[in-house]
Amino acid sequence: MAPHQALPHAHQPHSPAHRGAGRIRRSAAAAVAGLTAVTLLSACGYGSKSDDSKPSTAAAGSASAAKLSADSVKIGYFANLTHGTPLVGLQEGILQKELGATQIKTQVFNAGPAEIEALNAGSIDIGWIGPSPAINGYTKSEGKSLKIIGGSASGGVKLVVNPEKIATLDDLKGKKIATPQLGNTQDVALLNYLAGKGYKVDAQSGAGDVSVVRSDNKVTPDAYKQGSIDGAWVPEPTASKLVTLGAKVLLNEKDIWPNKQFVITNIIVSQKFLAEHPDVVEAVLRGSVTTNAFIKANPDKAKAIANEAIKKEAGNALEAAILDPAWADIDFLDDPLAATLQTEADNAVTAGLLKKPNLSGIYDLTLLNKVLKEKGQTTVADAGLGTK
């Protein structure tokens, strides 16, 4: 994901403040510090690199509402478009409404590993995160740290190239293509795609028929302008930013997946918090499902809400030329697309970036399916990777 990432994946609020009980106020809490670094599964580091997270923010619960089993719940997410569900859900007060008097405390992260560290340390209870760090966190803890409890977003990843150097997919040989980070979700996707086309690339160094250049999403646009890369396999909004610089979309990753869907953002929870406060977890999931329905029913309003949230968290809103195509390419859904998580892990193993992971039990969709049933919606499957 960013690697899932530090970039992307966010949604823009319609109003700069939460409504009623959903207002979020900044706290003086410092960013997570002193956390023990998560050792990645392999030397290549499957997942995104750990960056410092932003200071916490908190939302005051409604004192008059019924209180759940916890006084507060600590939620982590990125200020990225692919994290539109928490951006919109928090900004609009949808999540807070479901939680009643239980206070929301939020932490904004730049990359997955930092969020996993915070979850392991108890600094957050629930988080929106990409597939790579979720896989890494689960397997590194031998299945004891987290559970994936719901889906959030699919899509939002493209191969964009310099049209003067690359006209078709057959022109990739000898070119330099950037990915956000060694072993991150997009890096694995590009390596797998190139292998399928018969190109030989050393996964660790990136050298080969096509040069895979690991470049942070924040600097990739400058690298493109300087001509040091010929294209990039990146998530939104970086892909659309490159298009504004003259690049063209050569391939949308969703076009190579069954049903044009693949997981880009999941919801995870600390197993300890899930065991102690299932009612709070259920309330968050109900808020997520309600938020996704709101986004689908009000796409333009949700887009504006998400962009305002990004401005508040990251300091700058996205211009329309970047925001509009990026938002349009992301699908917000409740299904975690479990089968695609397994495929992404398998692709990383094939590329030599990950030892064969045991993902058995990584999902617990019990509460999500309860919420979906209550709303008269179709339940979702765990692809055989659920809690037994």
Structural class of the helices, strands and pairings?
alpha/beta
Low-confidence residue ranges: 1-52
The CA-CA distance between the termini, in Å, is: 28 Å
Helical residue percent? Answer: 25-40%
Nearest-integer average pLDDT: 86
What is the general shape? Answer: globular
Rg over CA atoms, rounded to whole Å, is: 20 Å
Major sheet size, sense and barrel closure: 8 strands, mixed
Strand runs, count: 13
What is the helix tally? 13
Strand order of the largest sheet: 1-2-4-3-5-12-6-13
Oligomer: single chain
Q: What does this entry look like structurally?
A:
It is a single chain. By secondary structure, the protein is an alpha/beta fold. It has helices spanning 84-91, 94-99, 112-121, 131-140, 185-196, 220-226, 238-244, 271-276, 278-297, 299-314, 320-328, 338-350, 366-374, and strands at residues 24-26, 56-59, 72-78, 103-109, 126-129, 146-155, 157-161, 176-179, 211-214, 231-235, 248-252, 263-270, 330-332. An 8-stranded mixed beta sheet has the order 1-2-4-3-5-12-6-13, sandwiched between helices. The chain has a 5-stranded mixed beta sheet with strand order 9-8-10-7-11, with helices on both faces. Helix 1 (84-91) packs across helix 9 and helix 9 crosses helix 13. The longest helix is centred in the C-terminal third of the chain and has 20 residues, at 278-297. The relative contact order is 0.20.
